Amino acid sequence: MAAAAAGLACNVAAAACGSHAGKGKDAGSPASGSIEVEQKFLFEPSIEEKLVALGATLAGNVSFRDQYFDTPDWRLTLADHWLREREGIGWELKCPPQPPEGADISSPTTESWNPRGLTQVPPRPSPLQPLEGAGRPDPATQYQEVTCPRDIVACVGSLLGVDLAMSWRDDVARAVEELGLEEFASFVTRRRKYRVGELSVDLDEADFGYAVGEVEAVVRRQEDVPEALERIQELGRQLGFDEETRIPGKMSVYLHKFRPVHYERLVRAGRLRKVRDAGATQGEKD
């Protein structure tokens, strides 16, 4: 990656993880460090008929709870790093694969996070880009998915400026406790997953009243992203997506509804777009 010399907070060596991947990680899950390219869409009941007509196959029908964690002053999410524990899967950290062209990659805060007197190191610069693609020329987003526990702990510690060379560097739950991270979101999603060639299509219904779809491709290299985007956009055209409207994800709508102060801070920082601007009326019901 072009920005490698600057020191990406989540530029991990996935091959070193091996058996250290998160608990319950199934064989079909992306490898740690993979880049997830996705486009969200709002769907009608007829979407499954359209998918089947295109040759899609139903790959899963599951429900799971996601819990998200951050410092009390939101240092991770303000740096566009999203630490999640998913029921039945384990821990994952989603972070930008590289900064967008011309972006400022400095951290949102200059002070290290040190809740328990841990050894401090200079906070590492983080590549910043909005979670929902605010300001991007297209509605798709790109994220690196880190599932190796050691890489997750190292990335979070580096971002917060804390030396985590300790016995619990392979234990994300222990790191969350030692670093004083707090849960800021928890919700259940019912998901129907389809496969269309190399693409996956998730139809999600969250327990707080928001339904959203997502077309996803997973690649290993940044240079493979443009081709993945083309495949996603072609499927979107076949399904009749609105290619101009950027649809907010479940997290944006959840924070808008239940954590308005956190949400507004992320909007001001450019990490999220305003929910109403994207027309997410499902998430705005009383």
Describe the structure.
By secondary structure, this protein is α+β, with helices and mostly antiparallel strands. It is built from seven helices and eight strands, in the order E-H-E-H-E-E-E-H-H-E-E-E-H-H-H. The chain has helices at about 45-55, 75-80, 150-160, 170-180, 225-240, 250-260, 260-270; strands at about 35-40, 55-70, 80-85, 90-95, 140-145, 180-195, 200-205, 210-220. The protein has an eight-stranded antiparallel β-barrel with strand order 1-5-4-3-2-6-7-8, surrounded by four helices. Strand 7 (about 200-205) and strand 8 (about 210-220) form a beta hairpin. The chain is globular.
**Whole-number mean pLDDT:** 78
Q: Count the strands?
A: 8
Strands in their spatial order, largest beta sheet:
1-5-4-3-2-6-7-8
Classify the beta-strand content into a percent band.
25-35%
Major sheet attributes: 8 strands, antiparallel, barrel
Q: Determine Rg (CA atoms, Å).
A: 18 Å
Terminal Cα separation, in Å? 45 Å
Order of helices and strands: EHEHEEEHHEEEHHH
Tally of helical segments: 7
Q: Helical content, roughly?
A: 10-25%
Derived from helix and strand composition plus strand pairing, the structural class reads alpha+beta
Oligomerization status of the protein chains: single chain
Uncertain spans, ≥5 residues at pLDDT below 50? Answer: 1-16, 18-28, 99-110, 117-137, 277-286
Write down the overall geometry: globular
